[in-house]
């Protein structure tokens, strides 16, 4: 049972995320993966995760700029696989470039969140996203 | 016999085989192998005592010429023919009766042609000349030596020609000796003359080309000396009329006795001339002119040796002409080449065609004898010296495009080809045009002024033809040689070949430079493209790699405050506030830089924009943030403009927020937006009564990150106006301002009405 898979290579961002979650009244379960390739292997249960029966998340938060395969690659591979093709994929990136947004949506992202520049704003945004995707949205992995 | 020649065959009169000889000599055409007589002039009966028709088919050895036996002649011919060039030994002296005659032989048209002519004294009247009788006594060699010396000493061409005319007159005793020069259109002009004082000089007279028809000029190139002893003497036919089986008379091109055309006789009779001698002057194998001798008093015979001397003089003169002309041409051509080289180096050094051709002491105007020049290049017209008006030059170029597709066009009579040029013929009666590119509309033109000339014609040149009595047009020699004046207009000095050649060389150099520059620009464009790709990558780096740690700094500060803020001393909290503010400020700077670079790169989508709703919305947003101020934003005329919605909104947003910001300390802040339009553009003026701009610092206003002294107390990053400027230049528009601090500061933006957006940079 996994609520959120957060794909993020920056330790600081990951730390701040953990802190935000920990301050919630009912903290969701989450897993943080720090590379695109690792995330794809996890979600598609391939490579080092071959044959393992891993819990699938109800929401994926994905940064775009990742070492190895990028956030775009993650979205594309997830959408290309029958088992994961309807998985909620939410981009969570500092990039506000319209080009990046268009590309993410073209590949099948469900939403695009621009990372704010402060803890309070981040906290606010993560809380609202969890509220929507985990409480109001209907999706069973 | 008087052949009539109509206009359709006038140029084809076969003057080389007239079928007649002049009456002062005898002609025999014989088989060079057997010496059998094929043809004889009808007067040969006087020579042989036999009717001419009985001579035909006889062997030369079977007849007598007076007391000279034919066999003697055959011996002489046999010896002469044994040399390969019997003509080299001309003339052969032959006693006929009590006189010595000259026998002149040559081979032509398959026949051996024998001509017998008397020595001169038999015919000539005693000379009534004022010329010294030197020629009677001076040996030919001495005369030639003196002529050579004269030629060498002549300081100018005119002097040389004059001395030659004089010398020929002394040698030959004709009443008038003229040097006649052909123009490009083959009309002639008398350029030197020596004549008896009782004659009216013909010097500087012009004669139409039809006076010496084409086939005569062709003949003059091979037969250099033509003698006509007596205009009034009847011509002697050659028997039989047809030569061998050729179906035409014998070719007399090289025969000294050849009779001239009846038309020419008539022409000379009209002029009152009794005897003539014409010697060709050649320049590089082409007919340059004639030495033309006229005699009026009576017949005049110049015997073979003297004709040979005159011929030698003419050849000396021709050589002198060539050397002189070569020297002159050489010097001129060398000078032009040097100048062309220098122009090329100037263009290369400046790396600019216009600069290289027009901005140095040596300009394109010096490349030839032009007095004006015009360069149309990259849609700009540059002129040098005396030229027609700019609009006239443009119109001339339009005309040229229609009439010529050549790379070079030249004329010395532009107004005759293009009537509008008559209005400016004083600047441009002649034109030399280089087409650099028809597509790009790029031309280099040289102009020469009209050279008004009065030409004196020997008779009206427009009427070389007279109507016959039956009313049909018939080519008939002119009757009138009265001096006839013509004012020649619309013409310039002609362009010389070397001028055209040098101009073409310059054209090559210009085209090479243009293509080198184009390649350079292409290379620069490629570098630019790569640079912008790098910039884009750099922008991404800024957006992600710089912003992320900055966000972390701020976030950790906030977390620390959240966890330990309650227990922190007041000073520590203030320090943390400063950290937060500094990171905010840096985040803002990064965002602004990205924004500026995006305004430079994003493609524009141009449309007609309604400005009023845009301004009304901006006013609402701005006023919402400025509660409690006496601030009004008045919107006046709002003509629509052509632009990119997002970017134009950005322009007004930046200008209006500046106006709001910098009028914050004004008690009654008034901002006014007023649009207006001209034929070409839509202009908006945004006026406020805020702190304004010290015009001394005007240069800094639109620079990125530049902030004025007066603005230091206001928050800002020095990016807003730089973005406005960038957007306006993307729209090919303009932005400028005017300021009286505390009273009125106005920023103007103008958008062109027809708009091709500038490429994204």
Structural notes for this entry:
The complex is a heterodimer of chains A (141) and B (761). In chain A, 42% of the residues lie in helices and 18% in strands. Chain A is α/β, with parallel strands linked by helices. A five-stranded parallel sheet of chain A has the order 2-1-3-4-5, sandwiched between helices. The interface between A and B is medium-sized, with 18 and 20 residues.
Throw out a few tags for this protein.
heterodimer, A: 141 residues, alpha/beta, Rossmann fold, five-stranded parallel sheet, 5 helices, 5 strands, 42% helix, 18% strand, globular, B: 761 residues, alpha+beta, Beta-Lactamase, 5 domains, eight-stranded mixed sheet, seven-stranded antiparallel sheet, 38% helix, disordered N terminus, histidine kinase (chain B), photoreceptor protein (chain B), coiled coil (chain B), phosphorelay response regulator activity (chain B), HATPase_dom (chain B)
**SS content category of chain A:** alpha/beta
Any idea how many domains of chain B? 5
Q: Largest interface here, residues on each chain?
A: A-B, 18 and 20 residues
Strand content of chain B: 15-25%
Task: Give the helix level of chain A as a range of percent.
Answer: 40-55%
Average pLDDT score of chain B: 83
Number of helices of chain A: 5
Span of the ends, CA to CA of chain A: 9 Å
Residue fraction in strands of chain A: 15-25%
CATH superfamily of the largest domain in chain B: GAF domain
Number of strands of chain B: 31
Helix content of chain B: 25-40%
> Please, how many domains of chain A?
1
CATH architecture of chain A: 3-Layer(aba) Sandwich
Q: Can you summarize the main beta sheet of chain B?
A: 8 strands, mixed
Shape of chain A: globular
The major beta sheet of chain A can be summarized as: 5 strands, parallel
Radius of gyration of chain B, whole Å:
47 Å
Mean pLDDT of chain A: 92
List the strand order in the largest sheet of chain A.
2-1-3-4-5
Pfam family, one (chain B): PAS_2
Catalytic activity (chain B): ATP + protein L-histidine = ADP + protein N-phospho-L-histidine
Organism (chain B): Fibrella rubiginis
Coiled coil (chain B): 507-534
